[in-house]
Amino acid sequence: MISSEGIIATDITRKFAAAAATLAPGELVKDGHFTLFESVGALEIMDPKMDSGCLAPGESLDEEYDVARPLLPSEVLGIIDQLLCLEMAWHLGYPLSQTLLTNVYIEAILMPAPATIDEADFIRNRKDGAPRDPMFAVLRAYCLGLLKSCWYVCDRIKFEHYYEEEDFVTNTYHRSLLDNIDRDLIRDELMTARSILHNIRRTISEEMAQALSFRLELRTAFLRAIELSDLRSNPESLSLPWSQMKAVWEPISKSHRLGTPVPEAFSTKIQRKLASTMPPRPIVHLSFEETYEHFRKLFADGIDVLKVLNYSDSQSLLNFVLTFQAQKPQPLVYIRTLLQTFLFKDMIILGHLSIRHVIDDDLAIVVLPCSRLLDPSNDDIEAPYDPRFAMAHQMELFRQRAAQSYLDIFRALCQNRCRVRRTLYHAIQDWETVQMDAMAIDRLLQVQLEENPIVYKPSFFVIEEDAPDPAYCLPLSSWALLYKLRLMEWIVQLGFELETYQPDELAGMYWYLGHLAKTRGQLVERIKAFTLHRRANHRPPLTQTMEAQYDRSLAFLRAMMLDSVATWEFARVLSCIYTVLLRLKLIVPPPRPYSTDALRYEIRMKPFLSITMPELPTFEEFTHGTTQPECSIAALLESASGAIGSARKSFDVLGKLSEQDAFTVDTHERWLRGTKNCFKSIIAASIAISTLSDATKGGVEGEEGLGLGLEVVVPKPEKGYHEWWIVPKITRKR
Amino acid sequence: MEDTRTSLKEARDVAREEAAEYLSSLLNKNLRVTTTDSRMFWGAFKCTDPESNLVLQHTYEYRHPSMQKQAEGSAAAAAASAGATLTSTPGSAVANQTFKMDMTSRYLGLVVVPGEHIVKIELEEFVSQMKKGPQYRSPTEL
Amino acid sequence: MAAPAPAPPPARLAELPGELNYIQYEHSLEAQYLPAIRALISKDLSEPYSIYVYRYFLYQWGHLCYMALDPVDSSLVGVIICKLEPHASHSPSTIRGYIAMLAVSSAYRGHGIATALVRMAIDAMAGRHADEIVLETEESNTPAMRLYERLGFLRSKKLHRYYLNGSSAYRLVLSLKADDPDAGLDYSLSDHEEAVGIS
User: Fold this and answer.
1) What range(s) does the NAA35-like N-terminal domain occupy (chain A) (predicted)?
2) CA distance C14 to chain A (A)
3) Which residues make Cβ contacts (< 8 Å) with residue A164, sequence separation at least 6?
């Protein structure tokens, strides 16, 4: 090792200590390129909390466990079930060093690294030709299947966007997870082990043989599921191994009681042999019940995620990703990476669509049904003076500009929820510039299209009284603005979901959400006006296909309008309720001697500060909108009551849409559940309003709130019906 | 009195300066640091404080095999040599043989070895550089 | 910085032994107090820190470390450790204070010692032109969150599985100065920008 040729080591112990001792307290001698900041990550040797190699007095480094000792079938089952718990803990984000690599059998299989399938065994010195002990064969085959699937899982995850340590730890501590051993050989070992079990089923009991066999089947199916997922083809055939796992999972959990735990086969001592810059950490103990739940969810999600491959339209795809990722608990990282792989691998969407196909589909749905701009034959025009030549060129420029930002929305949604919110901060800055660039292209294209401006008068969301000037359609920048607005709303709503706002901030944040949703409604209305105008003025008359395209687009705009109205109105309701609670001092802001409302507004709104459309309300506008000083409590509650009726109606209509009209093909059930939960939140809010109305009948203001005998609880997001709608629980004190 | 004090202080300052210079000269050199539990840490010296709490970079931990593993190794060596006895060199003594076992090592990265647990510090240098002679001697030695 | 370890309910002192002494750390106090600081903090935190974690902060920002001492025997009962430096992801760069560690001996809790230490640190950093002060705290550490939020901190983001024990954290921010509206935004994606690497 270190007795290298040509190197000499001199003992400098005393000289060093003497020199160091002359340093003044706190003084350091250090390499100029080495910062103390780096040193903070250093492990302190001989501190048992940090030094995994530190032995207690009299403790031996060696594992005292004998992997060659005979194992009872119930012990093999006990070890396998413990491995299932540790495997799940790894999926949940704990490192291998605290999970699977604490098992002595796995360590013995992996070290020294086996070169052949035969060496991949915890008993290496088996005599040639001697048969394996049946129980060893079962445990070994299980471990091989487990390790191989861990290798694939790790490999897949490393290939996609994820955050090391935060989402998942891919570190294998220089242990190779059988990457050099062929999957088919391991499958053969699993098969062999199952036939061994079949042969000895009388000896070890039918029930036990079956229980172990199911566990081996699980491993085979897992490997198969992984293998198939590379294909990105027909979801039905891909889902077979997942369904198989789902099917064996119930009997596996029911036979868990047959196992005898073997805790001594798991040890953190193995961490001492792992190359690691991490302090020693305990084995993660996940109960079998928790493990059961997580695996059940994993298999269900594994089947579910495949449905994304059934592409129907771009908006259904977005709704799929949106609702799939909003599930609580969120799908495991492995499933999230599968979704990313399906979506983006090799820049081919869902394995068979070009990015252009999806973007054009989206433009046609949102802003450009039956538009000449999306006619693929434009690409064939070679005459530069032909307007179609310019259209093809400008549209291609636009696609190049927008494609990445568009795909990034999907990618962002695949992250963990905390990351989604932060990634969207960046995304809205990006969409801000996409919108600007789109505006320039819109201006060029309106000339090519010889577009006549129309006098467009907002009917529903009236902004100003002035007679409007004739306006152009501006489809591309409208499309970009619509996405930007949706992302901005999601940022605010994720703020509720992640409990980022304190109770006294809720009135303001719901006010701002309402402001954004209202702006979105105004935009949708504008888009609709131009779509209707284009449809009415279409020459030559529309064919049936074209009619259908227009219908589809108008259906989308209707769903979008319903959603923005519902969001706007419900946000307004909650803002009013929280304003009343603040006035009644039922929610009391903390003293905050070091802060002002204006400073906090600035921090809170930082992500939106550089957005020019819609411009961030000034602090004064925000304060006025939130406190509504001109309204009495009675007036606030009345206005909340009015808004709640409208919100309820919108959610109700939304919930009755078909999956085609809601643009939730293949995700309708999940989407509907979310919509129904919003509806339930509205019911809860109307109860809050009536409790407040009853208690304040006759009129109370300000300090009197304390005398109302009301108790207010702002529930945690996961305790309400929907994480995005925090409805206060208001009860009368007994 | 005044003079003595000044010169004492000066002497101390000089000693301090030399000490700091000496420690600085070791920076980025590879050290082998042995701890009270007889493990050895091999890494590049990056920093120290007055208590000799050393920061080592790119560190490997080396550990002597346990007594049990040593016994096993010894037995294996004996067996191997016994096997050899049968085939080629009859009559050779098996007793008192020596066998080599590598220390087990693993990578740890950046570590702090606290001064209180250090029993030995060794400096690694290339023989080729050490043998170059005069330039490595201090003027007084010449 | 690190997540606090679950501690059994401490036997608290009903009354403090008298007015505590609050003092600023300096290098000459190292021998007397550094071991006590380490002991106090490591008791409260699940994640261990080497001596150099303390060196990192105290070497450069010892003046931003305050200690609360028992008036009777001058033993350490509370400590706060901070740093203050230009923050690069802002442009023009701002001066950002960071509260790295805060600990109060369990027997002395409930007397506002932590709040007093935080206020001293904020005042010191504000005096040195900090634009803002940030820190992380474990999502389940309600007392800490309440302490900071009462002073004016806001939760700016949630950090998924931030600590080694798998729990998440919130980043808390206290803005001390009105921002230049043209200044860049701190929507940095890296969470660990503040953390000292091992959390």
Assistant:
1) 25-186
2) 25
3) A170, A171
